[in-house]
Amino acid sequence: MRQVVTTTTGDVDVLKVEERPDPQPAPGEVVVRVRAAGLNFADVLSRQGLYPDSPPKPCVMGYEVSGIVEKLGQGVNSDFIGKPVVALTHFGGQSDLIAVKATQMFEKPDSLTFEQAAAIPVNYLTAYALLVVMGSLHVGESLLIHNAGGGVGLAALEIAKKIGAVTYGTASPQKHKFLTERGLDYPIDYRNQDWQPVLAQLTDGRGVDLIIDPIGGHHWKKSYASLRSTGRLGMFGLSTASATGFSGKLKLVKAVIQTPWFHPFALLNKNRGVFGLNLGHMWHEPEKVAVWMREILRGVAEGWINPYVDRTFSFEETGDAHKYLEQRKNTGKIILVP
Question: Is the pTM above the cut of 0.85?
Fold first, then answer.
C-alpha cells in the first residue's frame, strides 16, 4: 500500500508517498480500503515539529477516513465486509489501507460522498463537544466562532443554527458571502480591523455567551474579555504558533508566554467559565465519542448537517494541500484522496 509519510520535521518537501506493507486486522479490527482521508491543522503542526502528540518521525498522520471494509479480524461481524464506512484513526489514516477498531467505525450515510464523509469525524466531533457537551449552548444564546470559514467553524455554524443560537464569526472578507449563505448572522473581518470592538458594537457592549478559539496566545485573553456574564470560552488549538523551523519554535514560545492565567477568584467574580478540548486525548473514552458521532450522523439523516469540502488533493499533492491549509485559503474541509 501507499502512505503519505512525514519523513522528518521541515517544510512540505519532507512529505513523501512511500510503499509500505499492507496492514492485517487484529482481533476486533477491520481493514478499510481508504477512499478519502481528512487533513487537519494538527498534521501541519506535526510536520513543523510543533505538535506534542505527533508520533515519532517518520510517521503517517491522519485521524479520519472513509472507505470500504476489506478485511475482518477475529470477532467482527462478517456483514461488515464490503460496507462503506467512516472511521476515526489514531494516526495512519493517510494511507491506501488502514486497520481500525470496529468500534471506531460507523456506516457511511448514503447521502454523502466519501469525501464528505471523511470531513465529518474531526471537525464535527470537535464542534459538537465545544458547543453541546462542554459549551452548553442553548437556544437564544450567542456564539462567536473564530476562523468561521474553517472546517470546525462551518461544523459549529451548522450545530449552532440547529440549536437556535445567534452566530458571529471572524473570517477574511472574501469568505463573508459564503458564510452568510451558510447561515452566519454576523461575519466580522479580522484581517483589516480589530474584531473585538466590532463584536462589542454588535452586542451593545455585552459580549457573547460562548466563544470557541483555536488561535491561542494573547488571543485567548481578548476572547475571554468578550464574554458576557455566564459566558464560556472553549480553547481548542494554538494555530498562532504555526511556522516552519526556528520561526515556529519562537512563535510557540511567544504564544506560551502570552497565554493568560485564569484564576478561580476572577472566574467567580466575573461569572465566566473556560475549558479546553483536545480530541486527540479522547481515545480512552470511545463510548462518549460514539454517542456524539451517532448524534452527528442523525443530523446528516435529518438534513441539517451537510459537510462542505473545499478541495481534494491526491496523495502526491499533499504538500500543496498543507500549504493551502497553512495559508488559511480553505473554506471548509481539505481532503486527501489515494
Answer: yes
